[in-house]
Write a structure and sequence with these properties.
625 residues, 4 domains, 26 helices, Double Clp-N motif, globular, three-stranded mixed sheet, Rossmann fold, alpha/beta, six-stranded mixed sheet, Helicase, Ruva Protein, domain 3
């Protein structure tokens, strides 16, 4: 049997040691493997044995006496190839490796197996053999057991507690103190790719600074929290194990610094602290606030400029977080600061991945509210929050809804969340929908159905993943097409793609006119987006005949040279919008039966999922085939 388990370096050494103990380079029994596990230095068992006063010589003597006992060789084997050498292990050890991998993933968020994982798995699977083995070394061990799952704890010299100087405590916070070293489960799940990127950047010799970029609510701060948990509990690479994550509150460090010299003094205190504590990792949320922070007059030293020298040297590591808009608006203006940070883009997770990311946080909320919520209802929460809070981002918006739903259950004295507890959060929206006139419902339904038809039947818009359509009024919109951009699909980005994309924005207005024979003002946002894409096609993307070999902008390098060219650009924008409008009208006409059926169904139900819409369209296609 072959295996593809990822093993840590210490585990590989243990297997090699096990083969040497059994005096065979190709075979290891369960007994010899168990001996090598417990003889490996730095394991909890080894430290415990050493603390009882047993010498290394006595330890090996007892181990050899165990191995001298008859041991029946298995007939089936687990094959491992390590460092070009093949090892055959007892087949039952496959169970051990599988259980160890589960422990590593469940308790430590690791994908590789360590010696400690294998020892813990041995106690789970072969408990009697485990106790018998330990009793060989500690005769009264069985009497000492106070729990089913034995653990060895050795008093180790207490580490010197890291403290932040009093004068810095006002704006610095030690995030490591948020977690206990014994805390086995991290509330933050997923984001393994981002954590890996972040770790690689922090390990660089120079400019080991990262900036997390993403929309509010996607979990930028959560990534830092997970990294902090990994460091505080020792579930990180050795180079980061002694690190301390410190959070800087930018608004607090500049508070009350209106007098010249006050801000500079605080900046110098901060820089001196960071230089004297190279194990610190400084986290700055809303990092764009550094620019201009503390400058009392134009040209004065701000926090960004004060930090630039230490950011470049590599002795100090900084993690920042901001949005794409703020990054472009502020960081792009300061090239010296921008080049000192490496970008990590944090995308909103797809709906199908949200539950696995927030599962542990849901457990935490359940403990607080003393109520539980089923996975089925969590999936419902993910669906409904995407319809009613579409302008916010997952996983934050779903967690917020679950928190409120659990609170509703707690108020009602219930121990389980029901669908009503979720719907109660949207009762105002439901009432607004019920009070809408049939004409308003149908106009909104045609509008949203028009957008849906274009997304579904446009051949180039393959990166849009449709989830639902809603015409129940939300805070800032009457209706919405709930879509996600699939990061695993790359669209063509050619001229046809952008024409169809513009058409999808114009389709709502065009479809609404098919119902009421007139336009309404409810598509302002759609028109603005459509116009901006058309402008970019002409001025930025080179996808129009006026600009196929150049770009246009209002900066000094590529300024629009004349009013005549500017007028031509406007003409081409209008032509593109007209072309996209004709395309949208043609597609809606071709699918007029689908458009009408979807609009009527939406007017009745208010919300329809992609599955429900596909079922409706299938019936229409069968009737007309």
């Amino acid at each position: 049997m072959k295996t593809n388990y990822q093993l840590g370096e210490s585990t590989i050494q243990t297997i090699i040691l096990s083969s040497n103990i059994s005096q065979s380079p190709e075979f290891s029994s369960r007994k010899s493997f168990l001996v090598s596990l417990f003889l490996y230095p730095e394991t909890p068992f080894y430290r415990y044995i050493m603390s009882t006063g047993i010498s290394r010589y006595e330890l090996w003597e007892k181990a050899i006496s165990i191995l001298k006992e008859p041991d029946e060789k298995p007939t089936t084997f687990l094959s491992l190839t390590i460092e070009d050498t093949r090892y055959l292990l007892d087949y039952t050890l496959g169970e051990l490796f599988t259980e160890a991998l589960k422990i590593a993933r469940r308790s430590y968020s690791r994908s590789h197996i360590s010696v400690t994982d294998l020892i813990e798995a041995f106690g789970e699977l072969y408990y009697s053999e485990y106790v018998e083995f330990l009793t060989t070394f500690i005769p009264n061990y069985e009497e000492q057991l106070c729990a089913k799952k034995p653990k060895f704890e050795v008093e180790t010299p207490a580490k010197e507690k890291f403290t932040i100087p009093d004068k810095l405590k006002f704006y610095l916070t030690n995030l490591n103190e948020t977690y206990s070293p014994d805390e086995k489960e991290c509330k933050i799940c997923g984001r393994d790719s981002e954590i890996k990127q972040l770790t690689q950047i922090l390990m660089k010799a120079k400019k080991s600074n990262a900036v997390l970029i993403g929309e509010p609510g996607v979990g930028k701060t959560a990534i830092v929290e997970k990294l902090t948990w990994m460091i505080a509990t020792g579930n990180c690479i050795d180079k980061l194990k002694d690190s301390v994550v410190i959070s800087l509150d930018v608004t607090s460090i500049i508070a009350g610094t209106k007098f010249r010299g006050t801000a500079e003094e605080r900046f110098n205190d901060l820089i001196s602290f960071l230089e004297n504590n190279p194990k610190c990792i400084l986290f700055i949320d809303e990092i764009h606030l550094l620019l201009g922070a503390g400058a009392c007059y134009e040209g004065a030293l701000d926090l960004a400029n004060a930090l630039k020298p230490i950011l470049a040297r590599g002795n100090t590591r900084v993690i920042g977080a901001t949005t794409e808009e703020e990054y472009t608006k502020y960081f792009s203006k300061d090239g010296a600061l921008k080049r000192r940070f490496e970008k990590i883009v944090v995308n909103e997770p797809l709906s199908k991945n949200v539950y696995s990311m927030i599962e542990n946080q849901i457990k935490h909320l359940e403990k607080i509210h003393k109520a539980t919520i089923s996975k089925h209802l969590v999936d419902s929460a993910i669906f409904y929050t995407s319809c009613f809070n579409y302008e916010t981002r997952n996983p934050d918006r779903t967690l917020d809804l679950i928190d409120r739903s659990l609170a509703n259950a707690e108020i009602a004295g219930k121990t389980k969340v029901t669908k009503k507890d979720i719907f109660d959060n949207f009762s105002i929206n439901e009432n607004k929908f019920k009070n809408m006139s049939i004409e308003k419902k149908m106009a909104t339904a045609y509008h949203e159905a028009g957008h849906y038809i274009l997304h579904r039947y446009s051949s180039e818009l393959i990166d849009f993943k449709r989830l639902a359509v809603s015409i129940i009024p939300a805070e800032n919109y009457l209706g919405v097409n709930v879509c996600e951009i699939d990061p695993d699909i790359t669209p063509s980005n050619n001229r046809i793609y952008f024409i169809q994309l513009i058409g999808s924005y114009l389709a709502g207005r065009i479809a609404e006119k098919k119902y009421s024979s007139k336009y309404t003002s409810g598509a302002i946002d759609d028109l603005e987006k459509a116009t901006q894409i058309a402008r970019n096609m002409v001025t930025k993307y080179g996808l129009d005949k006026i600009s196929s070999n150049r770009v246009f902008s209002f900066n000094s390098e590529n300024a629009i040279p004349s009013e005549q060219i500017s007028l031509k650009i406007d003409e081409r924008i209008n032509a593109i919008l007209n072309e996209a409008s004709i395309y949208a009208d043609k597609l809606l006409t071709e699918h007029h039966m689908h458009l009408k059926a979807l609009a009527e169904a939406l007017a009745k139900s208010g919300i329809m999922s992609e599955k429900e819409i596909s079922g409706l369209f299938k019936q229409i296609d069968l009737q007309n085939s």
